[in-house]
Amino acid sequence: MAHFPPLLILLAWLACCMPFSGLTVPARAEERPDPFERLFGHKASIARQNFPANIEQHWRRVLHAEHDSPCLLRNTSCLPPGDAPQWLKLAGKAPAMEELELLRAVNGFFNNFPFATDMENYGVEDRWPTMADFSSRRSGDCKAYAVTKYFALRALGVPDEKMRIVLVHLYRRKVNHAVLAVDTAKGVFILDGNARPKDLILPQERCGSMFTPLYMLNEKARWTFRPDKELLRAKYSR
Q: Which domains does the chain have, with CATH numbers?
C-alpha cells in the first residue's frame, strides 16, 4: 500500500470536507460602458470607410499642426499678450480643480473670444482653424471653439479618450454646429461656444432636444451616427 505524507493527506481532507460557504470567488470588475456610445439619444458606431473625406482632411491638418507646434502646451506665445496672464493663472490652478470646475473655467475662458466666420477670418467658406489660429486671431467659428477647448484640456492633462469633438445639427436654426463632449465622473458634459453664461456646461442628457449628432472624433478614432442625409448638407454656423 502506498504511503502519503501527512501534510498531503491533510490538504486533501480540507479540500474535500471543509464547507464552501465561507469561500468566495472575487467577482470580475464590470467594464464601464462607453459613455459616448449613445450621445443625445443616438447610437454611435466606429467609422471605417464612411467618414467624410473633407472632415478627415481638415482634422488631420489640425492634428499635424498641433503635433508640430503645440499651442499652450509649452508656452503661451500663440495667445494675445492680454490673454496670456489669465491662461497661466488658470493653468496654475488646474491641478487643484475638480473636473467640472476645470471644464467651466476652460469653457468660459475661450467663450470670451468673439465669433467670426471662416470667410471673415480666412477668406474661405469652410476651414478647421488650429488652436493657434483661433487663439492668435482671438475669434473663430464653432469648430474653432471645439478644437481649441479640446487641445487646451489636453494641455491641462485631460486624456484624449475622455473627449470627443462632436458635429451636430441644430434643429431650431437648421444649421450644423460643433461642440466638445467630455467624460467625467458625473457623466458626459458639453462645452458649447454658444453657452450663456459663457462658462455654462450641460450634461449631454439635457442637450438631446437641441442637437442631433452627425459625426464624432478625437485623436484616435472617428464615429458616425447615421443621421438623415439632408442634415449633412446643412452649413456650419454658430
A: 35-232 (3.10.620.30)
Neighbours of 133 (CB within 10 A): 21
**Could you report the per-residue pLDDT of 107-127, keeping only the tens digit for each?**
999 999 999 999 999 999 999
Query: Which strands sit side by side in the sheet containing 175-184, from one edge to the other?
Result: 45-46, 222-224, 211-217, 163-170, 175-184, 187-191, 202-203
Phi, psi of 55 (to 5 degrees): -65, -40
3-state helix, strand, coil in the chain (%, to 5): 40, 20, 45
Report the candidate in 111, 125, 84, 100 with the shortest Cα–Cα distance to residue 235. Answer: 125
Phi-psi label, residue 50: left if phi above 0, alpha if psi -120 to 50, beta otherwise? alpha
Q: Are 152 and 141 in contact (CB under 8 A)?
A: no
